Amino acid sequence: QVQLVESGGGLVQAGGSLRLSCTTSGRTLRYAVGWFRQAPGKEREFVAAISWRGDSIRYGESGEARFTISRDNAKNTVHLQMNNLKPADTAVYYCAADSTGTFMNFDYWGQGTQVTVSS
């Protein structure tokens, strides 16, 4: 059974940093993992994704420049380093696993972690 658990969210002031972690269990070693976020009243948006080897990375518009995704397969963990946070980054952040590795079929999801950026 595949499970994903996010951690590292919290309250931070604008300009600050947070590092989110997604710990996976089950048969996820060769899965791509991505981060998404959803703010109140808005649609879920893609933030970043990384292949299982870590050799392919994509960022959405919301993740470019200020965010960095990485993974440690030995620890079954994917991180999202977020720097220079802005109030517009306030959202619930979800990690998801793509068993096809194509970045197009995220079929397993975590419960999410809240990130709140104060001005």
Give a structural overview.
The protein is mostly beta strands. It is 0% helix and 53% strand. It is built from no helices and eleven strands. Strands 2, 4, 5, 6, 9, 10 and 11 form a seven-stranded mixed sheet that branches. It has a four-stranded antiparallel sheet with strand order 1-3-8-7, with no helix packed on it. It is globular, with a radius of gyration of 13 Å. The termini are far apart. The model has no long low-confidence stretch (mean pLDDT 95).
Keywords summarizing the entry:
119 residues, 7-stranded mixed beta sheet
What are the secondary-structure elements, in order, as H or E? EEEEEEEEEEE
**Which outline best applies?**
globular
Q: What integer value in Å does the Rg equal?
A: 13 Å
The stretches of 5 or more residues where confidence is low (pLDDT under 50) are none
Distance between the termini: 40 Å
Q: Structural class from helices and strands?
A: mainly beta
Q: Report the strand count.
A: 11
How many DSSP H or I helices?
0
Task: Give the rounded overall mean pLDDT.
Answer: 95
Q: Kindly state the percentage of residues in helix.
A: under 10%
**Major sheet size, sense and barrel closure:** 7 strands, mixed
Beta-strand proportion: over 45%
